[in-house]
User: What shape does this take?
Amino acid sequence: MTIDRRDILRIGGGFLAGLASPRHLLAAEAVEIRMQGKADGSHVWFDPIGLRIQPGQTIRWINLDRGNSHTATAYHSKNLERPLRIPAGAEPWNSDYLLPNETFSVTLTVEGVYDFFCIPHEHAGMVGRIIVGQPGRSSAADLSTQAAGGETIPEIALRAFPSVEEIMRRGVVRPA
Ligand SMILES: [Cu+2]
Assistant: This one.
């Protein structure tokens, strides 16, 4: 009996799949959001700008922009009195300034939509959106407009958030 190359590949693939299923890897590993910028500083962004994770997963921001410090900061009254744009009952976070190659991690357990921004670059539209599990009732209408009270959000930032629908459909939304 001869075993051709394709059979060997099939056997090998099955063996690997049994050892480490992608689901196990996903639960254990942090999901990365990169802070990026053009060398001349004319454009800065989070990549991905939108993503969906499961409750209990960890997000890790890493500053890959050599020319700028960035923050990952949740929209919450504890952070510079910004309007609330994370689920009620969820803990707000603020990475403070990350120098190039520095990282900051947060584990999100409460389901819903989380919006965050970069303190020095919110006015350049450097914001992002994470959906944990199901988006819940905090839906599109409230999120595309200013919340009553609190500091207003710059229009350029409001327009930058990917829609809840797009994140749910695609899982990961890369910046335009
Ligand atoms: Cu920034």
Summary: Residues 29-173 form a domain with the Immunoglobulin-like fold (CATH 2.60.40.420). Strands lie at 31-37, 44-47, 50-53, 57-63, 73-74, 103-108, 112-117, 127-132, 172-173. The two ends are 54 Å apart (CA to CA).
